[in-house]
Amino acid sequence: MPKKIRLGILGGGGDSLIGVLHRVASFINDNYVITGGVFNAEYDESIKFAQEIDIPTNRIYNDLDALVEAELKLPKEERIQVCSILTPNFLHFPMAKKLLDNGFHVICEKPMTTTYEEAKILRDTLKKAGTVFAVTHTYTGYPMVRQMREMIKEGVIGKVHKVDAQYYQGWMNPIIHDKEKRSTVWRLDPKKAGISSCMGDIGVHAFNMIEFTTGLQVESLLCDFNYLYDDNQMDMDGTVLIRMGKHVKGVIRASQVATGEENGLSIAIYGQKGGLKWEQENPNYLYRLNDPEPLQVYKPGHQYNSKLSLDGTKLPPGHPEGIFDAMANIYLGVARAIRGEEYNDGEFPTMADGVRGLNFIESTVASHKQGNVWVGLD
To answer: CATH 3.40.50.720 spans which residues of the chain?
Structure first.
């Protein structure tokens, strides 16, 4: 086993769900060691949290500037190699740019930035840096999503003509109807979250899943948002019609106020020879539809699956693979890239996916604000 990659973490302290997810994912394949970071905006809180999770405190820093300055003074074989950015959205761009400018690899939560213009600046910065950059669209790490991608690539369902992705959550419902509560949530603050809440947070996952599995790109879209209240600046719900070619069309449906829903991401891709369907809340089942044959169910760990799917499977058939494993598969792919090893281009979402995501988010907002019209993506 090669020496472990030295990982720094920015954000994700306290009871942050995303913090736990990334830390556990980094440990799963024994490729990383958390070496330092900035877990909280308050230095004392960062120290306290590092002690709680048993991370040495000598490389816990006041802020990112202090981390970069101190780490660059260390011998190359000792310094942090890659940083995970787990902060609120508005900090992604300045942190990622600072890290890239100084030669660090980056693993960044989505959306990669808060504007498409910032995303393009990061893309140019990465070209100069020549380092590895991953965007954690976690769901691409599930074994059966990877199987879906490979089956479509191999032509199992034939030419794609219809796509349907949905991401329904209900967690914002008790907040949005209370004016005082909604003023305390950073995802409803455009200065911190960017121009979109629902589509920027979860709709972009559905968009990414469509492009990841089909290998096609969305060319244009038409969007309709629901803000629920006139004084609320952020979308809570949206429906997006998409065109991926003259004869390839579909829909993305996303909501943060789908009352009672938990984490309802699902995707269905239909082609001339059949269809494939997958649901995040039942991630071990990939359904293959093929008239007039009976419904087929694919499950992880079996030898009939693709190499990419099996590479992301850690347990024998019948043992559930979950979201920690999915994120761990992304970290595994990044480790291979950092070490210069061979890897499949489906192992982790890249800067290109991050740029596409911001292009999508801004296009949905533009479509809605212009009166629900078709808007082309770059």
So the answer is: 5-138
Structure tokens that stand for 274 in this block: 């059949």
CATH of range 5-138; options 3.40.1190.20, 3.30.420.40, 3.40.50.720, 3.40.50.300: 3.40.50.720
**127, two tokens:** 């070209």
Residue count of the chain = 378
Model pLDDT for residues 240-278, shown as the tens digit of each residue: 999 999 999 999 999 999 999 999 999 999 999 999 999
* Short-list 221, 57, 244, 225, CA closest to 152: 244
Which are the contacts of 180, defined by CB distance < 8 A and separation ≥ 6?
A: none
CB atoms within 10 A of CB 47: 15
Going 186 to 256 to 357 to 153, the CA torsion angle's sign is positive
Question: CATH 3.30.360.10 occupies which residues in the chain?
Answer: 142-313+350-369
Reading the block at residue 103, the tokens are 């030669």
> Domain 142-313+350-369 sits in which CATH superfamily?
Dihydrodipicolinate Reductase; domain 2 (3.30.360.10)
Residues 200/89, Cβ–Cβ less than 8 Å: yes
Q: What is the average pLDDT value for the chain, to the nearest integer? A: 96
Question: The whole model's pTM is what?
Answer: 0.94
Structure tokens at 316: 């024998």
Biggest distance spanned by C-alpha atoms of the chain: 66
Torsion of CA 42, 51, 98, 72, to 10 degrees: 130
Decide: 168 and 367 in contact? Cβ < 8 Å.
no
For strand 264-271 and strand 274-279, is the pairing parallel, antiparallel, or unpaired?
A: antiparallel
Three-class DSSP category at 376: strand
- 159 φ/ψ sector (left φ>0, alpha ψ -120 to 50, else beta): beta
Task: Tell me: cis bond preceding 56? Omega within 30 of 0 counts.
Answer: no
What's the one-letter identity of residue 322? G
Strands in the chain per DSSP E: 5-11, 32-38, 82-86, 105-108, 133-135, 160-168, 220-226, 237-245, 248-255, 264-271, 274-279, 286-289, 296-298, 375-376
What is the tens place of the pLDDT at every residue in 35-60?
A: 999 999 999 999 999 999 999 999 99
With contact defined as beta carbons under 8 Å apart, do 343 and 108 qualify? no
315: confidence class by pLDDT, cuts 50, 70, 90: confident
The predicted model gives 371-375 an average pLDDT of: 98
